[in-house]
Amino acid sequence: MADTFSWHIANASGQLFHHVDMGCQEKRLVEKVCDIYDKILKLENLIPSTHVDTLFTQLVLTCIAPSPIDVSKLSKRVQEIRSNLIKLCGEAEGLLESHFSTIIGSNENPFNHLNIFPYYSNYLKLSQLEFTMLSNHFTGLPNQIAFIGSGPLPLTSIMLASYHLRTTFFHNYDIDSLANSKALRLVSSHPDLSKRMFFHTADIMNVTNNLKEYEVVFLAALVGMSKEQKAQVIDHLGKHMAPGALLVLRSANGARAFLYPVIDPCDLQEFEVLSVYHPTDEIINSVIIARKYPMPIDLLNPRNGSIILPGKCSEIQHFNPLNHGSEIEEFAIDEKLS
Q1: N or C: where does the chain have the smaller number of CB atoms within 10 Å of the terminal CB?
Q2: Strand pairing of 306-307 and 271-277?
Q3: What reactions does this protein catalyze (predicted)?
Q4: Does 141 lie in the same domain as 11?
Q5: What DSSP string describes 24-40?
Q6: E strand or H helix at 276, and its extent?
Q7: Closest Cα partner for 153 from 204, 103, 79?
Q8: The total number of structural domains that make up the chain
Q9: Same structural domain, 74 and 172
Q10: What does the pLDDT look like over 74-114, one tens digit per residue?
């Protein structure tokens, strides 16, 4: 798909035309997103229905097309629309998952009906992607994993436990007790997962000592709907996760940032960023893998020295002498997962 864009322009006039054209494309993209947003606002509610599903499908299809747009540079009005749209998407996603969790859980063997969820194949690919990335940085298999923001239909935990991490124990955290009860109903009849999947109703900001038990922590995309909230959650995890534990985060890139919050690597102060992947197919979320530093940064760097890491962020980052410069691994656009 990348070949359809003029990434390589032979002369200066061609470059000028390319940039003007991309500017027009960005303008049309923003106009279309704002138009869909206006239609969503007119809905009576976001409960799954033909009309609701159609609008959000249009929004997703609009935003997943490859685009170089930088949402942080958009006007204040569009920034406000984006912020509101992310909240609406989060509400709609929660209602959709709750709706299908109820339907799937009403069957005698829920696991035989998971694929009726509209985005089942996306979760299948996303869990494969995240496992592949984790495998590059984790020796063996983790014994304990936490998934924060698991929701009523914890497909990522289910798929990782079923296909990739078949001996790992999964601790799923959600602030909504009803979501947890629906999720528990899905796995309670499964002879294996019922023994390896646990559900905790809690605000993760109130969870401290238990976080030290997990070798890997997943943070769902919609935990922390704003940049400030997301940064607070990440800071909390940085304070209480076990030294050396891995953090898997879901972010967004390009136009997909109209659907999900963007995680700035600058907010990962207590972590070393290991790899970043920006998909260009139907997988919507970018994935970031980071490792908590083995000891507090001030102890790693007692003289409080600092260097600037180009490409990570514009702010000064503490230097970690145990790893001379954090490498952010950007995967090629058309790379196929092995």
Answers
A1: C
A2: unpaired
A3: 3 S-adenosyl-L-methionine = nicotianamine + 3 S-methyl-5'-thioadenosine + 3 H(+)
A4: no
A5: HHHHHHHHHHHHHHHHH
A6: strand 271-277
A7: 103
A8: 2
A9: no
A10: 999 999 999 999 999 999 999 999 999 999 999 999 999 99
